Amino acid sequence: MPSVLFVLTSVDKTLTGAQTGWYLPEAAHAYYTISQQATVDFAAPKGANPPVDEGSVKDYANDEESVRFLNDPVVKEKLAKTKKISEVNVTEYDALYYVGGHGPVIDLPVDPDNINLIGQYWDAGKIVSAVCHGPAALVNAVDSTGKSIFAGRTATGFSDEEEVMVNKVKDIPFLLEERVKQLGANYSKAPEPWRPKVVVDGKLITGQNPASARPIAEAILKALAAKE
């Protein structure tokens, strides 16, 4: 059975001091899709019990899978045993999946262990995937030649338009769409904000927003099946 590592933020405050963390449905929807056909573990820079974005808990209080995820004893144990990124080995997993939230824009792009992890998985030909703000974790990752993993590839992620709509531009160090374009990617997004959008470009798989969590999970499973 293939294995997927969900990578989460360890940050619980934005640049303005607002509460943040990893975004609940982007973990929950992907988890219940992927875990049917693959094993799932969690990792974060600081390890155990990474903080959830409390706003996402409120916003998805009526979402069945999100509520289930928060109360699932298996998930609770996995979150309590979240690995430090520094402890993860390149041979352990077949794919990386970066969960969004505003937290990942703050700690993961500049975390040296995370940058190293992505480079190792990328050079090993493994799947590197991310949803919503998750692609922010990849912006400083390079391949063995020192080139950005976004250079010359098509990708998506939380759009500048969506960032303005949630009024969070001041809370994060950079805008994801703008940065991905600067790195040489062909940025692609859904025709309207908040619609699902997933882009598969070889081993790089990206999703635009919370609505893209289930579709990106399906794309990850499809890519894993193609490798078997």
From TrEMBL:
Domain DJ-1/PfpI: start-end pairs: 78-222
Molecular functions (GO terms): glyoxalase III activity
Pfam families xrefs: DJ-1_PfpI
GO cellular component, one term: cytoplasm
EC number(s) reported in the record: 4.2.1.130
Catalytic reaction annotation: methylglyoxal + H2O = (R)-lactate + H(+)
One BP term from GO: methylglyoxal catabolic process to D-lactate via S-lactoyl-glutathione
Superkingdom assignment: Eukaryota
Swiss-Prot/TrEMBL keywords: Lyase, Stress response
Family in the record: Belongs to the peptidase C56 family. HSP31-like subfamily.
Protein name: D-lactate dehydratase
